[in-house]
């Protein structure tokens, strides 16, 4: 726990994680769709923050692939996903 203390404000870049840059382009999304079809997937569960969930929404709208979004943001940029508690952790 000490090694990751106080990194919430740094975002995903301190973990060297990011969404695929190609997915931001129509050609990249076309390629992703071809992979989804080839694998015979019925839908996607997307775990991420605002950018990932926005990408999933575009993917579902354009290709009709059902997507379920699960907030899993290290950037803390999705409203309403924080938990406030009066009890000590």
Describe the structure.
It contains two helices and two strands; from the N terminus they run αβαβ. It has helices at 26-39, 50-63, and strands spanning 44-48, 67-71. Strands 1-2 form a two-stranded parallel ribbon.
Task: Furnish the topology, listing elements before pairings.
Blueprint: H1 26-39, E1 44-48, H2 50-63, E2 67-71
Parallel strand pairs: 1-2
Element-level helix/strand string: HEHE
- Percent in strands: 5-15%
Structural class: alpha+beta
Task: Please tally the β strands and state the result.
Answer: 2
What helical percentage do the residues reach? Answer: 25-40%
Biggest sheet character: 2 strands, parallel
**Whole-number average pLDDT?**
80
Task: Please tag this protein with its features.
89 residues; alpha+beta; 2 helices; 31% helix
Summarize the structure.
This protein has 2 helices and 2 strands. It has helices spanning 26-39, 50-63; strands spanning 44-48, 67-71.
């Amino acid at each position: 726990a000490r090694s990751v203390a106080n990194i919430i404000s740094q975002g995903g870049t301190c973990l060297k994680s990011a969404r695929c840059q190609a997915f931001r382009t129509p050609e990249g999304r076309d390629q992703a769709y071809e992979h989804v079809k080839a694998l015979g997937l019925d839908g996607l569960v997307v775990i991420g923050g605002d950018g990932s969930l926005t990408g999933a929404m575009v993917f579902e709208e354009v290709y009709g692939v059902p997507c379920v979004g699960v907030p899993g943001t290290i950037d803390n940029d999705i409203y309403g996903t924080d938990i406030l508690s009066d009890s000590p952790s």
